[in-house]
Each structure stands twice: as structure tokens, then as C-alpha cells.
């Protein structure tokens, strides 16, 4: 695995699903615009069966997202894959000209996803054709967030873009002066994102004007999660930070023994996140005190999904883990065929996840 791929995997793309009927289905990176990482449905509390396994032809660092009938997954062969949620068979695929390590977002029958060919694509799920594409000056590994008919995403060209979701026209761009692997969160009037120069930014979601910035000192691959008071972020400095959403001032920070490339989930009063030291941690959202920790046998780049009191998270030790959210106790673990860098998604009682060699699993 190259250093560049490790860094991009460290974005720890976490994908979840929200659904409604018909074409109104919405699925995006880490459930919602604020990137909470908590899904309202439930996944398997006990390990039952492997429903199916689909194998893509190249490495996978993108995380799956689940629509009503299809699972969408990016692959390093340059394709976006749409896999039948019931059978695990390929329904269709869409070609880009570069690695697809961005996690797709599905909104109203359109899939938005970035590629290393420097484009963000909007793809129609019925026609399987291009709705529009938007060109940047660098690879797009950041996962898009769609809210209020606007798509927000980052590029390695050092900018974060706001693009009209319907026609792909640029509304604004913000020069972060450093590559953006981190995927934006949107809450209230602002967009939050981290950069490779070590800054966490808050910018106005309508104008792109800077509201505040926080200097984390080292690179940020982790993506922010936001509640009503704080923004939570992990950094290469082996720290998890809680930042005041209004002032940009640090409220607390906690040290781990490894870089935090995983992205945090907010489960009530808990901040749950993985670390390169091989542990999954739970911190008190209010004061940062450590609530529990769980040891895996390899670095954890995957970001957690929390569903009905269960934490699902992958490790480079090849296992997907299901832990109790309250205490971090092991419910079950499932061994895949390779390391897990991407993050799981939960829908309709099943959990979907992928290994680095391209295998997409459905467990129920």
C-alpha cells in the first residue's frame, strides 16, 4: 500500500443510509450533513449469516452507501459500482478516468462522487449516464455532502467547492491553501473541514467566507463531526479535539497512542473514534474523559457507525467488529479476506463493508 493511499484511506470514509420512499432515497457519508455517524435503524447484534459477497476487480478505499435497492461503491479501477442489495450481483457500473476513493452520496436518484481524474461526477441511477461533472485542479478524494440543493466537497487542489446540485455550476470556492482529503460537514450556517496544512476551518455555507480557523498543528485526514456546541476532529498529532462551534476555540483535546485518521461518531454524550494505535476509543463529549477503549490487532483507519446501541467498525487486522456503544464490549467480529480501511454502512438490519482487495460484504 502506498503512502498516498494510506493517507487517503485515513480520511476514514464512513458511510451510512437514510431512506425514504421512491426517488427520495438519501444516503451519504456518515449519515447526515453534520456527519454524526449515527443511523436510526439497527444492524445485526449477533452474527448470523453472510448474505452475499461481491468482489470488485481492484483495491477499494471508498466506503459503500446503501440506496433502496442498490449498494454503491467506488473502486481504484476508476469505476463506480452499483450492486443489487438483495442478490449481491452487479446491476451497472460507471467509468471515470481515475481512482474512485471518494465515498458517493445518493440524493433523489443522483449519485455524487469524486475521482482522481480531478472531477466530481453527478450520475443518474436510472439512465446510468452523466448528469453533470465538475472539474477541479486536483484529485477529489473528499466525500461530497449534499444539503439545500448544494454539493460541498474538497479537492487536493487546496479548495473546497460549493456546487449547484442540479446543474453543477460553481456557487463559490474557498482557498484553503492546502490539500483537502477531509470531507466537509454542514451545520447551521457553516461548512466545516480540515486540511493537510493542519487547519480546521468554518466557512459561511452561502458565501464561502471564512468564519474561523483552528490550528491543529499537524495534518488532518479525519472528517469533522458536529453537534450543537462543538466540532470534533482527529489529527496526525495523535489527538482528538473538541472545538467551540461559535468561536473556534478548543474546549478539550485528548491524546491517543497513534495518529487519528478515523472520523468520530457522536452517539449521545459519547465521541467514538478509531486510532492508528489499534484501539477504538469512547470519550465524554462534554469534557473529553475516556469512557472506554477496545483493542483490535491492527491500526484502525475505519470510522465507526453506531446503530441502536451497537458500534460497527473495521480494522486492518481484517475484522469487522460489533461493540456495545455503552461499554465497548465485543458483540461479535467477522473476518474478511483482507485489511479494512473503509467504513461500514447499516441498512434494513444488515451491515455492508468492504476490504481493501475489493470484496464487498453483506452481513445480517
Nutshell version of this structure?
With about 375 residues, the protein is mostly beta strands. The chain has one helix and 35 strands.
Give an overview in words.
It is a single chain. Helix content is 2%, strand content 46%. By secondary structure, the protein is mainly β. The longest helix is centred in the N-terminal third of the chain and has 7 residues, at 3-9. It has one helix at 3-9, and strands at 15-18, 26-29, 38-39, 50-55, 65-66, 70-74, 79-84, 90-95, 105-107, 110-114, 119-124, 130-135, 145-147, 150-154, 159-164, 170-175, 185-187, 190-194, 199-204, 210-215, 225-226, 230-234, 239-244, 250-255, 265-267, 270-274, 279-284, 290-295, 305-307, 310-314, 319-324, 330-335, 345-347, 350-354, 359-363. It has a six-stranded antiparallel beta sheet with strand order 1-2-9-10-11-12, with no helix packed on it. It has a single domain (3-363), classed as YVTN repeat-like/Quinoprotein amine dehydrogenase (Methylamine Dehydrogenase, Chain H, 7 Propeller). It contains one helix and 35 strands.
List keywords for this structure.
mainly beta, Methylamine Dehydrogenase, Chain H, 6-stranded antiparallel beta sheet, 5-stranded mixed beta sheet, 1 helix, 46% strand
What is the CATH class name? Answer: Mainly Beta
Strand order of the largest sheet: 1-2-9-10-11-12
Number of strands: 35
The CATH superfamily name is: YVTN repeat-like/Quinoprotein amine dehydrogenase
Oligomer: single chain
Helical residues, percent: under 10%
